[in-house]
Amino acid sequence: MDSEAKSRQRVAKQHRGNARNGGEEKIVGDKELSSRKSALSMVACVLAGMTFGFAVEKGRVFEPAAVRGQMSFSRFIMLKMFLSAVATGMVGMSIVSMLPFGKSKFDQMRVKFFRKFVGKRGVLAAGLGGFIHGVGMSICASCPGVLYIQLGTGTPNAVLTLCGALSGAFLYGMVEPTVVRLSKPTAVARSNTLDQFLGTPYFVAALPIAAMLATCVFALELFQPWGSDLTQPNSAVASALELRAWPPYLSGMLAGSLQGVLVLTLGDTIGSSTSYAAMASLVLVTGDMERLSPYLSGYKRSPAAWAQVLFSVSSVLGGFLSAWFSGALGTVPGVPGLAAYLGGAIMVFGARTASGCTSGHGLSGSGILFLLSFVVLPAMYLGGVLTAALMSAVLGPV
Asked: Disordered: where is this region (predicted)?
């Protein structure tokens, strides 16, 4: 009997060992799978960022003359590329939302997007932040997403705009509790998006709007052909890569096509201004300093924020490669240093107040039909137009 009992104990011990080893193997396997997914996500983020930077450079919307020209209604390539990108993004995300394997990712992406705003940002903060953002755009002739391409193409004083942008992000981090307290909404909106308000599926509302935006681009092109807005014409004999400029609607379609890809691969959309908050958070090097701004500290440890930094830095490389292929590196005039720094600070402070910029609210927020983005965009444009008009009256044509 003693030998039988010992035999049973040995068998039971062996089973426990096998179970433990099996559990350890499963944990190791899960970690390997997670690491593989993280690596693939990083690759997707880098490739998407490079493509975005390439498209923006070829569309020429990174040129300070294009930004200020749009605000003064003398050039329209920026608006053409923007509307084309939004329309294409709507089509791509509509397709994703209809796919069996894409609908859940699309829904999760929108929930994550809304989480930044619900109970935190109301119409006041959205409108005021958008207006301030537009003011800064006209002063520095840039925007948070375009700035990275200006860095990659060697646009003069782009580094000063970056310094200003980081200063604006840091300043907002210091006053964020006060801004939220003064502008926090008193009621929760019943609907976050236009399709929710209408009670229809996303694609039913998005596709007709995309068609209308495409029609607007077509009308703008008839009114003022894109070639007339170029600061330098294309070479008569050049390959597609060597061309200095592509039609803004083609560049916009390339940039907008990234939206569906990003939703499927990263569960996210295009954005830029969060990257400045993440980089500004690195100044908080001690625990005591982190307590000065819980807002910035949160970005310091946010994988999503640093994924946006990776996307943005990759767009620098994309812009550089595009300009290098066409021999356009360092050929675009910049703005004065003071305007670059101050405008960058005002621009990102406004973007953080609105919790989004021309990329986050413009390309992505309007693309997913987020109602608050339709408050930010007109306010942003109003701030930019009024500032451009004031600058023209005081300083002459900008």
From this structure: 1-28
Average pLDDT over residues 224-243: 89
- If 0-12 CB within 10 Å is exposed, 13-18 middle and 19+ buried, where does residue 23 land? exposed
For residue 233, the 8-state DSSP code is P
User: Which residues span the domain enclosing 149?
Assistant: 44-395
d(CA 207, CA 203): 6
Q: How far apart are the first and last CA of the chain?
A: 99
Q: Please report whether residue 24 resides in a domain.
A: no
Amino acid at 49: G
* Dist. CA 233–CA 186, nearest whole Å: 53
User: Is the per-residue pLDDT at 130 higher than 70?
Assistant: yes
Half-sphere exposure (CA, 13 Å, Cβ side) for 123?
Answer: 8
In a domain, 34, yes or no: no
What angle do the packed helices 258-266 and 2-59 form, to 10 degrees? Answer: 160
Burial zone of 291 (CB within 10 Å; 0-12 exposed, 13-18 middle, 19+ buried)? exposed
pTM score, two decimals?
Answer: 0.89
Q: Compute the CA torsion angle 362, 366, 370, 372 (nearest 10 deg).
A: 50
Residue 292 maps to a domain = yes
In a domain, 50, yes or no: yes
Whole-number pLDDT of residue 24: 52
CA–CA gap between residue 324 and residue 218 (Å, rounded): 30
Selection from 251, 250, 246 nearest residue 227 by Cα: 246
Number of domains within the chain: 1
Cα distance between residue 235 and residue 206, in whole Å: 38
Q: Read off the pLDDT of residues 246-265 as tens digits, 9 standing for 90 and up.
A: 999 999 999 999 999 999 99
